[in-house]
Design goal:
Blueprint: H1 5-9, H2 12-32, H3 41-46, E1 55-56, E2 64-66, E3 72-74
Antiparallel strand pairs: 1-2, 2-3
């Protein structure tokens, strides 16, 4: 099976997904080596390519989704009974 890379790079959805995957990989790699990055949501949103729904907090603070306006939404699996 041969992939037509020229066609892939002309597809905006595929390029956006590739960019997100590459950024995620880079940030995880930096985190692995203990390098802290400070990229604010506002900086990412100014690019105009991505809309941020929210971010997930660290495990030590609990499972919350923090929306761009600062609201916390507790995350839990559907059907999971909390103790």
């Amino acid at each position: 099976m041969k992939i037509n890379w020229s066609l892939r790079f002309h597809n905006k959805v595929w390029l956006t997904t590739l960019l997100a995957v590459v950024c995620t990989f880079v940030f995880n790699l930096l985190d692995l080596f203990g390098i802290e990055t400070t990229v604010a949501q506002e900086q990412v949103m100014q690019l105009g390519v991505v809309d941020i729904v929210g971010h997930i907090t660290r495990e030590s603070t609990g499972a919350y989704l923090v929306t761009p306006d600062g609201s916390d939404i507790k995350l839990r699996a559907q059907g999971f009974k909390e103790e």
